[in-house]
């Protein structure tokens, strides 16, 4: 077998592989000899079938199997012998000429194929001692814990029917029918619906028009669905709701005590506060972690500059771009609405893709040299978390992970990355800094750590998903989101 390098340009490689016809014929004859005593052919006793007849009957199929095996196995062996790692699965090309293929299968012509791939660049690791980060830490006060407990307790708040007009904070029980153009629409009707005025659960303007109503009132409310409303047939449409108020109830006072805790399924108020404090600590800890990680990544980005495989960058860029395009399409906006142009956005997201690929390679090299591994227990826990998100689909998801090697890799990669960050935190200079909640939550837009390459559309939604994919959960956590139902469940909401 001949292995000839035909291209070595930057990270790009092309290898021509030639297996002489006589070598292919030898391999075919070996296979034929192996099956001679196993096949049964009418007119011949077992083991007495002439080799020429076997070749006539099975030669092409055996050669086809040999071709497939060579194409499947040799690229890995060739790369290992060359001491190279391919950035992606090598592309394999062979003749598409039917006559030429027939000659190869008949062992009358050399079998040739080419490998095209990009090598992973060599990375010379540098000392991490010069990396310095500030870890922001928030002290959680009893007052904040109590405030959060009261918010949690809203679900256990009781209401008592009152006479008179409804005010913000009161709960209204009502029947309603929603109409667009005078015609009732699907999902716009409900009976006995409960709504706490001022909760922001229903579309803008709906709750405000119920303030001052009382039991027995019949009202027609006019509202306009938001332009980005999930139900496209309702988005931006003016609608009326015929509302019949059945009851108005005032909220009872909430006291943080053991009785409240028991309503929430806990044994005591102390235990309730303990759980809430833990949740707040976890939330702030996640934000702190993301800011720490960003600082580390920014400094690694400055430390390492090397050519990145175009195939990996293109794959990363396409993923980012699809997210951005889908987000804009769903919101009905354009790049101009996002204070940018498509050309500028593409340029900036290409830079972001290059950064991600480069940092991914650096983190991979650091982790490999440090002996970082992802255990089977860690993988099982991560997969279990995936299963929890899709109840009733557990079997399909497990089958997917078993049948798709790339699916398991997508679970393993973020775990590995976080463990590499943990490893780096044992080597770098970390200074803890006490900050307020507001300082921790402060938006990082415009700060030096952003490097400009993170955002094609500053302050706008178009960049949100792309940033989140690089570990920007903190950005999402800063925005208070109210629960929303599907239009089919309750279109007034």
TrEMBL record:
Its EC number is 5.2.1.8. GO terms for cellular component: cytoplasm. Keywords: Cell cycle, Cell division, Chaperone, Cytoplasm, Isomerase, Rotamase. It is found in: Cytoplasm. PROSITE patterns: FKBP_PPIASE (PS50059). Residues 169-270 form the PPIase FKBP-type domain. GO terms for biological process: 'de novo' cotranslational protein folding; cell division; protein transport; protein unfolding. It catalyses: [protein]-peptidylproline (omega=180) = [protein]-peptidylproline (omega=0). Consists of 3 domains; the N-terminus binds the ribosome, the middle domain has PPIase activity, while the C-terminus has intrinsic chaperone activity on its own. Belongs to the FKBP-type PPIase family. Tig subfamily. This is Trigger factor. It comes from Rhizobium mesoamericanum STM3625. The lineage of its organism: Bacteria, Pseudomonadati, Pseudomonadota, Alphaproteobacteria, Hyphomicrobiales. The gene is tig.
């Amino acid at each position: 077998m001949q292995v000839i390098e035909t291209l070595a340009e930057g990270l790009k490689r092309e290898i021509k592989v030639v297996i002489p016809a006589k070598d292919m014929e030898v391999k075919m004859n070996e296979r034929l000899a192996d099956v001679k005593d196993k096949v049964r052919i009418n007119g011949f006793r077992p083991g007495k079938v002439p080799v020429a007849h076997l070749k006539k009957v099975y030669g092409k199929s055996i050669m086809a199997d040999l071709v497939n095996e060579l194409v499947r196995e040799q690229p890995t062996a060739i790369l290992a012998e060359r001491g190279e790692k391919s950035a992606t699965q090598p592309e394999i090309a062979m003749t598409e000429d039917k006559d030429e293929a027939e000659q190869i299968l008949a062992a009358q012509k050399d079998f040739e194929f080419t490998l095209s791939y990009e090598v992973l660049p060599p990375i010379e690791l540098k000392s991490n001692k010069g990396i310095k980060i500030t870890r922001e830490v928030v002290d959680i006060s009893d007052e904040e814990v109590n405030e959060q407990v009261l918010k949690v307790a809203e679900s256990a708040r009781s209401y008592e029917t009152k006479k008179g007009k409804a005010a913000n904070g009161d709960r209204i029980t009502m029947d309603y029918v929603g109409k667009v153009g005078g015609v009732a629409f699907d999902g716009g009707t409900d009976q006995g619906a409960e709504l706490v005025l001022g909760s922001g659960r229903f579309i803008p303007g709906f709750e405000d028009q119920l303030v001052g109503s009382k039991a027995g009132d019949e009202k027609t409310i006019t509202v306009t669905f938001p332009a980005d409303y999930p139900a496209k047939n309702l988005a931006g449409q003016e609608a009326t709701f015929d509302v019949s108020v059945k009851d108005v109830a005032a909220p009872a006072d909430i006291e943080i005590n053991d009785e409240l805790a028991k309503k929430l399924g806990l044994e005591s108020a102390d235990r309730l506060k303990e759980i809430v404090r833990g949740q707040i600590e976890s939330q702030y800890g996640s934000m702190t972690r993301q800011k720490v990680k960003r600082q580390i990544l920014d400094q690694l980005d400055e430390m390492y500059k090397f050519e990145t495989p175009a195939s990996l960058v293109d794959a990363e860029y396409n993923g980012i771009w699809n997210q951005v395009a889908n987000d804009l399409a769903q919101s009905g906006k354009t790049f101009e609405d996002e204070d940018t142009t498509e050309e500028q956005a593409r340029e900036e997201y290409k830079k972001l893709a290059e950064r991600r690929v480069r940092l991914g390679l650096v983190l991979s090299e650091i982790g490999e040299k440090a002996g970082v591994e992802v255990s089977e227990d860690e993988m099982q826990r991560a997969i279990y978390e995936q299963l929890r998100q899709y109840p009733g689909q557990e079997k399909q998801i497990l089958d997917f992970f078993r049948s798709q090697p790339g699916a398991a890799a997508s679970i393993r990669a973020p775990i590995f990355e976080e463990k590499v960050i943990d490893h780096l935190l044992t080597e770098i200079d970390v200074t803890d800094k006490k900050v307020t909640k507001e300082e921790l939550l402060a938006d990082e837009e415009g700060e030096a750590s952003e490097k400009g390459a993170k955002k094609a559309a500053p302050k706008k939604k178009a960049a949100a998903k792309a940033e989140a994919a690089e570990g920007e959960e903190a950005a999402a956590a800063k925005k208070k989101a109210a629960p929303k139902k599907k239009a089919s469940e309750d279109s007034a909401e």
